[in-house]
Amino acid sequence: MKKINKISAGIITASLLAIQFVYPAHSILADTVKQEQMKKAHHQKDKNQAVKQDKAVWDKSSLSFISKCMDSDSVSAVIKNGEDSRAMQGEVTYEVFWSEAGNPKNGKVVATGVVKPLTSGETQTLTYPLDPLMAGNYMFKAYQRPNHPGAGELWSESLTVKENTDSNEQIQAQRPLDQFFNSSVNNGTATFTVPEAMGSVQISFSSYVYPDGIVPGEDGKPYEGQTIYDSITNNYGPGTHTIHVDLPENGYWQTDLYLGCSIETLTENGHPVDKIIDADYRSENE
């Protein structure tokens, strides 16, 4: 009887020892799986944080093309950073696409350039000098700042340049241009006459506001820093035309009648002397 008890005790002891060896193996496997799961969770968390940080890079600027223009020697488009947008924290690139026919988006790039960092509501005119031998369709393409939530790119409207078939007998504008066009500018109204022998001519009429704290002097100077308030650009045929632009209710302003595309911001010299036709300005803050 004692012998049987000894054998039973030995079997039980061996069984307990076997259980002790098996248990740690399962525990190690469970710990390994848990560690792998924790690593994956940390990796996903790091990835999500990286995505959030990457999205946070967007400077909250947002660009759009607001107008286009074409004259005898260039095509241009005006790009603007939105009024409710924040200032751009860096520049972006733009491209000019051309196709002899059809959609310029399917054409080729003929020029590239840079859009400077624009503040909220600020504009920049992008200009491409025309090659007389490259009639066709043109479009400007620009890129938003990194991580912009939209498409990331924007296109201007198409501009179509035709071959110059005008007769050489047509007269050209001659200085002084105010006498040539028999023009007058009074506040926000301009009147001018295109001679019969001239054909169609592109003319712009714009109102500008002065920078804060600047009081206009002689001839509306200083020109530098004046920004556009309202503008109209059109092609006018022979005859007399009267056009209007809005004026700011308060502050100093200047109105300019000139040849070619609308100019958004004036430089130190104002409009080129071979473009400006007539002007008016408020010299007293009424």
Task: Describe what you observe in this structure.
With 286 residues, this protein is α+β, with helices and mostly antiparallel strands. The chain folds into three domains: 1-51; 63-161, Immunoglobulin-like; 177-281, Immunoglobulin-like (Sandwich). Helices cover 20% and strands 35% of the residues. The protein is built from two helices and 15 strands. The protein has helices at residues 2-55, 177-180, and strands spanning 63-70, 74-81, 92-99, 108-115, 123-129, 136-143, 153-155, 159-161, 184-186, 189-194, 201-209, 227-236, 239-244, 253-259, 276-281. The strands form four sheets. Strands 3, 4, 6, 7 and 8 form a five-stranded antiparallel sheet that branches. The protein has a four-stranded antiparallel sheet with strand order 12-11-14-15, with no helix packed on it. The longest helix has 54 residues, at 2-55.
